Amino acid sequence: MLAYIRRVEPVIFGLTGGIGSGKSAVGKRLQGRGLPVVDADQLARLAVVRGSRGLAELAHYFGAEVLTATGELDRARLAERVFADDEARRALDSLIHPIVRELAAERFVRIGERGEPLVCYEVPLLYEVGLERDLAKVVVVHAPDLLVRARLTGRDAFNDAQIDARIAAQMPLADKVRRADYVIDNGGSLAELAQRTDAVFEALCSSLGVSVDRYPAIN
Ligand SMILES: Nc1ncnc2c1ncn2[C@@H]1O[C@H](COP(=O)(O)OP(=O)(O)O)[C@@H](O)[C@H]1O
Ligand SMILES: [Mg+2]
Fold this sequence. Notes:
The chain is of the alpha/beta class.
């Protein structure tokens, strides 16, 4: 007789926003409260580690010039190729996205097997790829453009042109805010961000019927 296998899927909500808006800062706060957070950026890096199928596909499409001497992905080189060229960026996306989806699905199953009722999926291009259809709710992090630029200069040492290219490659933030179920305003300090994250998270839990007691706020 076949064993009856009960697979409990966690409820998945999305976390997105523009580049540098503070998604990872929000994700870190949620993780600090004990919520599992899956980071699509991290999975995208995993998809192209040295020796991976993903990296082989990239090298096949873009040429060996996107590899370093030691066979790693040369990110700066690839970025320069794709941010200047829509077709190249679409090709990159269509190589990487299916791998990221597979890796994410594996993570969600494992998280569900641990009995977790809820998981946050942090995805920069969530709306751009139509992912909201598969998510219970979407949270958008928003910060004023000037602040984002200053923060990105601190984080990535990008110049203005590099930041412009990255912002231009995304859906306008105002459109994301309009589509969001919840918006977190990251126009203040990190302490304010933590507070606003907590408030949104608590509202989200209540609307999804998940007990927030599972995720104690630590200060
Ligand atoms: N409220 C804030 N005050 C000061 N620095 C912030 C704030 N929010 C984010 N940052 C910093 O700005 C940079 C971008 O934030 P991050 O969370 O990495 O953005 P994203 O993941 O959306 O690209 C990081 O260096 C982060 O530490
Ligand atoms: Mg991030």
